[in-house]
Amino acid sequence: MSEKITIKIKAHLDETWAEWFDGMEISYEGDMTVLSGENLDKAYLHGMLNRIRDLNLKLISVDTIDE
């Protein structure tokens, strides 16, 4: 069973940021960027959140879905 993750941040990042976020899919909802992809493990999720913090981006939400 895999787990999908969706992270919403208050910023408009273009597609070139995908490399910074390990190739996660980038989409948009209004003025938010939505990062989505497979959550490999808790360390992976914490790494994503640390990058968002280090870039001084505003985190809106984190959702995980078991498939």
Structure explained in plain terms:
The chain has 67 residues and is α+β, with helices and mostly antiparallel strands. The protein has a domain at 1-26. It is built from 1 helix and 4 strands, in the order βββαβ. Strands 2-3-1-4 form a 4-stranded antiparallel β-sheet, with helices on one face. The protein is globular.
Radius of gyration: 11 Å
Any idea what the shape is? globular
- Termini separation: 6 Å
Largest sheet: 4 strands, antiparallel
Give the helix level as a range of percent.
Answer: 10-25%
Mean pLDDT: 89
Low-confidence stretches: none
The count of helical stretches stands at 1
Strand order of the largest sheet: 2-3-1-4
Structural class designation = alpha+beta
Approximately what portion of the residues adopt beta-strand conformation? 35-45%
List the secondary-structure elements in sequence, H or E.
Answer: EEEHE
Number of strands: 4
Task: Describe the structure concisely.
By secondary structure, the chain is of the alpha+beta class. Helices cover 19% and strands 43% of the residues. It has a 4-stranded antiparallel beta sheet, covered by helices on one side.
Features:
alpha+beta; 1 helix; 67 residues; 4-stranded antiparallel beta sheet
List the helices and strands and how they pair.
Blueprint: E1 3-10, E2 25-29, E3 32-38, H1 42-54, E4 58-66
Antiparallel strand pairs: 1-3, 1-4, 2-3
